[in-house]
Amino acid sequence: MGRRNNQSPDELVQRLLRGDRRAVARVITMVEDQAENTDYIMKMIFHHTGRSVIIGLTGSGGSGKSTLVDHLIGRFRAMDKTVGVVAVDPSSPFSGGALLGDRIRFQSHSLDDGVYIRSMGSRGYLGGLARATADVVRVMEAMGNEVVIIETLGAGHDEVDIIHVAQTCLLVLTPGMGDDIQAMKAGIMEIADIIVLNKADLDGANLCLRSLEATVHYGLDDKARWIPRVIPTVACASKSTGIKGVDELVNAIMEHQKYLFETRKIDEVMAKRIEQELGLVFKDEVEKVVFAGLKGTGKKRKYIESIRAGHTDPYSVVEEVLAMFLKTDKME
Amino acid sequence: MGRRNNQSPDELVQRLLRGDRRAVARVITMVEDQAENTDYIMKMIFHHTGRSVIIGLTGSGGSGKSTLVDHLIGRFRAMDKTVGVVAVDPSSPFSGGALLGDRIRFQSHSLDDGVYIRSMGSRGYLGGLARATADVVRVMEAMGNEVVIIETLGAGHDEVDIIHVAQTCLLVLTPGMGDDIQAMKAGIMEIADIIVLNKADLDGANLCLRSLEATVHYGLDDKARWIPRVIPTVACASKSTGIKGVDELVNAIMEHQKYLFETRKIDEVMAKRIEQELGLVFKDEVEKVVFAGLKGTGKKRKYIESIRAGHTDPYSVVEEVLAMFLKTDKME
After folding, report:
1. Inter-chain touch A94–B290, beta carbons under 8 Å
2. Residue A219 DSSP class
3. ipTM over the 0.90 cut-off
4. Domain containing B304: what range?
5. How far is A149 from chain B (nearest CA, A)?
6. How many Cα atoms within 13 Å fall on the side-chain side of residue A177?
7. A79-100, pLDDT tens digit by residue?
8. Which pTM does this prediction carry?
9. How far apart are alpha carbons B42 and B24 in whole angstroms?
10. How far A191 CA sits from the closest chain B CA (Å)?
11. Residues B88, B109 within the same domain
C-alpha cells in the first residue's frame, strides 16, 4: 500500500484506464478530497470519456430506486455490458462519506468484476457533492464502463445538478403520491425521459398510471419531441418473486438512447453535460481560491467581529472582498 | 399595486420594519429573485436583526415536522410571542417556488397576524436556496418576529447550510428507523441540540428512545457541554386528540436558549451564523459576477464546443477563465 501511495499520477492514470479497481478507488477518493494532482488526473482521463451510456435515476426515499438499479445492473450484465454505479445517498447529511454504503446496497453484484459501485454521502467533500459526482462519473467512464448509472434522491439543488449530467433520465414514482404527482406535473416534462411507476401492484396504481400518461402527453406541440415513457414496475427488495416491468424499462432506455442518436439530440445532451460540468468545476474552484485567500490572512475573523459589533454587514463585506479578488477590467 | 411596485427601497424598508405584511412579502420575493436593490434593502434591515430566537427543525419526510411546527407556533403564540416560519420544502426540485405552500401547511394559523409563514421550494432561485433562506430569516427578524422557525427536510448540502443559521437545532426522528439512527449516531452530537422522537406511540418507540438516550450521553468528557435532550412526542396531523410532549419540547427549547445565554455560548452561535451567512452571500456573489461575465461574451459556448471537439477539457478551461477574473496579487 505504501508503494502505491507514492506512485506518480501518470502511473495511476494508466492503471485506471486499464480498469484496475484499486487505482479507481484511489482516484475517486482523491476526487472526494480534492487532493493534490486531482485536476491533473482528471485532465488526463477526460479524453477517454464521453462514450458511455449515462443513466440518471431519481425518486424519493422508499420508491425502490436501489432495487431497480440492482435489476438494471443484472439486465446490462446479461447483455455483457460493464456497469458503473454512483449512488448519491444524502440520507445522513451529518457526517462524511456514504453510510449504508456499498456493503448493504447492491449485494448481489459485489463479486462481479464487470460492476463497479460507489456510494457518495452528502457531506465531507471539500468541493461540492455535485462536482465530485460529475467527476466520479468521468472516472467510471475512463475505467471502461459501458453504462454508468447515477442514482439520487432527487431532492435538493446538488442532486438536480447531478442528474443533468445523465443522458437518459428516469424518475421513479410510486402509487399513492397523489399530491406529489400533481405538484410535480409541471416539472416532469422538463427532466424525465422515462417515468417508472414502481410498486405498481399497490392500490391506486392504475389511476396513477392513467394520470401520468395524461401528463406526459399533455401540451405536446413538437412532433419531433420525445414523449416520456411511463413504465409500471414491481421491483421490491422483499419479494424475490414477481419482478415485473424491468425488461420493458430496459427497452425504454434503449429506445431513448436510439432516439438521441437518430435525431442527433445526443449532441445537445453532451453539450449540456459539459456546460453543467463547467459550471460545477467553476463554482468549486472560485470558492477554493477566494476562501483560501480569506482563511490565510485571518481577515475573515476580523470581518465577523466587525459585523457582530454592528460596524458593517455581510453584504458590504462581500462587496469589499470581491473588489479585492476580482479584476475590475475583466473580460474585454 | 402599481404604486407599491414603484415605491423606493427606503419606503419598503420602513414598511417592513413596521411589520407591514405586504412589504415583507415583496422583499422576500425580491430576495428570491435577487432583484435590484435587494442588497441595499438587506443592508438597511441587517442592524434590526439578531435579537430573535431562531429554531431549526430538520428530519426526513413523513416524520411529522410540519405538524410539530404547527404545535410550536401555537405554544409560542400562547406566550404572546410573534412567530415567523420559513418552511424549506424541496419535495419537488423540478419547478420553481414552493408547491404545497402556505395554503395547505399550517392552516390553523393562517388568520393570525402574529404569525408569518413562508414556504420556499428548492429551485428557481437565481442565488442558492441556502442564501435566500438565510436572508428570509433576517427579513422575518426585521419585521419583528420574536421567534423564527426554519423547517427543512435535512437532506442535502443546502439544507445543512441552512440549519447552521439556527441557534437551537431540533432533529425529528420516528421509531423504526433503526438503521438510520445507527447511521446518524456519529453526526447527531454534531448538530442536534434537541432530538424529538415523534410518533412515540408507535411500536419500538421505547427501544428507540433508550438507544437515543445512550447515544447522546456517549463520549461526553466536557462537563460544560450541552447534553442533547431527547423528547418523545405524539403530534400527528390525523389525530386531533392525544397530542403529547409538545410542552416538554418547548421547555427543552427554552432550557437550551437559557444555556446558550448563561454560558455565553450564544456569542459563538451568533458568530457562526454570521460566518455561515458570509459564506453563502460570498459564494452567490462570486458566481453572479463570474458567470455574468462569461455569459455576456459568448465565450462559454466557444469553450463548450472546444471541449466537445477534444481540444481541451473543463478543468483547463476553468483555470484559464479564473486567470482572467482573479487578481494574481490578491490579499497581500
Report:
1. no
2. T
3. no
4. 281-325
5. 20
6. 24
7. 999 999 998 865 544 333 333 4
8. 0.66
9. 12
10. 7
11. yes
